Amino acid sequence: MRPSPSRLLNILVPVKRAVDYAVKIRVNPQQTGIDTNVKHSMNPFDEIAVEEAVRLREKLKASVTSIKAITIGPPKALDTLRTALAMGADSAIHVEVPETQPAPEPLAIARTLKAVIEKQNAAATKPEDKIDLVILGKQAIDDDLGVTGQMLAGLLGWSQATFASKVDIDVAKNEALVTREIDGGGEEIKCRLPLVVTTDLRLNEPRYASLPNIMKAKKKPVEKLSPADLGVDYTPQLETLKVSEPPVRVGGGKVANVDELLAKLKEAGFP
Asked: What SUPFAM superfamilies does the record point to (predicted)?
């Protein structure tokens, strides 16, 4: 028989299609951003998030009723969702935007995720159908902003545990014990569910999707939505004036003593 804990977890995992981590980043000729005509893959921190959701289900068994992946991006982002499904997610949502549209800003993404959560929770006929745990990467490696999770928690009024390196959930007590990465080492915090968790590198090592799971992923359901369906406006609030590559580093030099070092610094314009 299925156990009947006080809460059954329904996990949402946002994932992003980003420039592959192994690609050398270059600025586009217009200097409006980076060249995106390169290989893309799932944001590495989001891979960690998917892996953690799957591990929680393996640990908590039937207490995890569903793992749903979601992405906001152009049609090509469907490949990112398929990767998440092959890793172990049960279903997915694709909020599709035109290829030519700039990537949504973190606040717009957080509002989109909030709208999806509220839409599903309002339609849920049973408590176990409600989303009560969101796990996402602490940042995307393309913009490195690292604020979407915090904004989402603030909009929802949920608990948040950022930069997680360890996550333990006690379903019976309706709480989570999370170890966070901080400058001084690790910090343990106890959170009540519902909860937003952002993942750090030390949390886990994502698994490779096996060929059978890749084939099975093609049959898993993917719901397609538009920003208009969710009442979200993706009009940019920020304006990028110019993007340029950092100056080329030049070789250093040797000095014989401190006096010569000070003289060189003065020549370079340092007081």
From this structure: Adenine nucleotide alpha hydrolases-like
